[in-house]
């Protein structure tokens, strides 16, 4: 089970800083940045909630369905009237591109509400593939990291070098 070996935030922060320092001091910051493509995608996907264009709950991790032992995308619910134009445009864009799911409905008080999945790469994978066991979800995320973070980086660095690098 992947959760049994999670090393915690401190090691993750330390490892990220180590990569950054090595890339900067070693003068290969562009190559190092390419390794972080999935993390950059996750940040760009999270921007609407991080900058409060769309309400951001305290926890955005998937929720467990104990009966099926599978993870479902977490959701945030808010009044439609609380959403500004830019937030509405972002919600529509990410919904049309299938990065999130959202629905509008009316509650018992007659208020229009919106429920949307949270804007993270983990929830996006769950939107694409449906409820998944934690091990399967972890394997898909590792595969994304390998394909987008490593293979694409090496392909750009060694085969498309003349388009991205000076020398």
UniProtKB/TrEMBL annotation:
GO BP of this protein: dolichol-linked oligosaccharide biosynthetic process
Membrane-topology descriptor: Multi-pass membrane protein
Keyword Glycosyltransferase: yes
UniProt keyword annotations, A-Z: Glycosyltransferase, Magnesium, Membrane, Metal-binding, Transferase, Transmembrane, Transmembrane helix
Subcellular location: Endomembrane system
Gene Ontology CC: endomembrane system; membrane
Stretches that traverse the bilayer: 6-26, 33-54, 113-131, 137-160
PANTHER family noted in UniProt: UDP-N-ACETYLGLUCOSAMINE--DOLICHYL-PHOSPHATE N-ACETYLGLUCOSAMINEPHOSPHOTRANSFERASE
Protein name: UDP-N-acetylglucosamine--dolichyl-phosphate N-acetylglucosaminephosphotransferase
Organism: Rotaria magnacalcarata
